[in-house]
Amino acid sequence: MSYPTSVKIVEVSARDGLQNEKEIISVSDKLNLINGLRQAGVKHIEVTGFVSPKWVPQLADAKEVCAALNTNDDTADSHVQYSALTPNLKGLDAAIESNIKEVAVFTAASETFNQKNINCSIDESFARFEPLIDKAIGSGMKVRGYVSCVLGCPYEGDIHPAVVAQVAKRLHAMGCYEVSLGDTIGVGTPLAAKKMFDLCAEQIPTDQLALHFHDTYGQALANIHTCLQSGASVIDSSVAGIGGCPYAKGATGNVSTENVVYMLNGMGIETGIDLGDLIKVGQQISTILGRSSHSQVLNALYV
Ligand code: HMG
Ligand code: MG
């Protein structure tokens, strides 16, 4: 069995995690979270979304958060790539003003989910993304693409993996350097995850595919493990397992970063992240949110 020697972790707690919290936390608490992740060695952090504040009030402070990001101590070695969600040109323009160098567009393999999440069909989402991606790339930015509902939809149920691969291929062909495969409601199981990943890998190089698995049914680590065997080497995760999706009822957080790093450490796969430091960050954000952590590794190791 072959595994990658290192894995890129994309930390999404500050966006995916916090967008689903009822309490709106302060800009300074968000910055402490982001800076804590950075100090723990995380190199890719999705910090917010430039989305409609009417749809996601939790991220209405996107500009303030980005304005205060710490990039002062950036050297080639310590460079951290900050990214943000942008659903349309208005979002991209705000990201450019905020000096964000990587943005992410998001669509789904389910028509109904797309309507609920971004108020348009899959085809309409691509029509929106075309000028956005052109402008972003023309401005020297990187663009990531998300496909939601890759292993099931809260409204449509089963999703055919060929549809996922087709949507992923369109994003990639349009200029997304990385396509993140979202099990939005965490319903997938290992063989389904592998089948879906393998079909996408027929269209896109494996190092340009990311696993974005929510952990609603406790399957995320098992699903990640099978996809690692198929060549996956990019994993989205959220410290303390915070997160969800406001338009996917019942979805819990992303797989916890602590659980992922613990598993990869045990397998001898490099992430560059210090588990001890990460656990402190997870504990801190759980305290701010006023609830216990969803990470078993954090709960086992926090003293
Ligand atoms: P709409 O209502 O169709 O947009 O929403 P519109 O163009 O008709 O504009 C309506 C109003 O929104 C206008 O304001 C616009 O200015 C404003 P008004 O005139 O009424 O005062 N507006 C904006 N404001 C700020 N930033 C913007 C923006 N665009 C328009 N970028 C829209 C369409 C896409 C904007 C809306 O549906 C939206 O913001 N949706 C975001 C939903 C979201 O953030 N969902 C969660 C993230 S996706 C996710 O979690 C899944 C993922 O994690 C992967 C996975 O797990 O599967 C990525
Ligand atoms: Mg998500």
SSE arrangement:
Layout: E1 8-11, H1 13-17, H2 27-39, E2 44-49, H3 62-67, E3 81-85, H4 89-97, E4 102-108, H5 111-118, H6 122-138, E5 142-148, H7 161-174, E6 178-183, H8 190-201, E7 209-213, H9 220-229, E8 234-237, H10 257-266, H11 275-289, H12 296-301
Parallel strand pairs: 1-2, 1-8, 2-3, 3-4, 4-5, 5-6, 6-7, 7-8
Helix pairs in contact: 2-11, 6-7, 7-8, 8-9, 10-11
Magnesium ion binds next to loops.
Question: What would you say this structure looks like, in words?
Answer:
About 40% of the residues lie in helices and about 15% in strands. The longest helix is centred in the middle third of the chain and has 17 residues, at about 120-140. The protein has one domain: TIM Barrel (Alpha-Beta Barrel). It is globular. Helix 2 (about 25-40) packs antiparallel against helix 11 (about 275-290). The chain has an eight-stranded parallel beta barrel with strand order 1-2-3-4-5-6-7-8, surrounded by seven helices. The protein contains twelve helices and eight strands. It has helices spanning about 15, 25-40, 60-65, 90-95, 110-120, 120-140, 160-175, 190-200, 220-230, 255-265, 275-290, 295-300, and strands at about 10, 45-50, 80-85, 100-110, 140-150, 180-185, 210-215, 235. The protein has about 300 residues and is an alpha/beta fold.
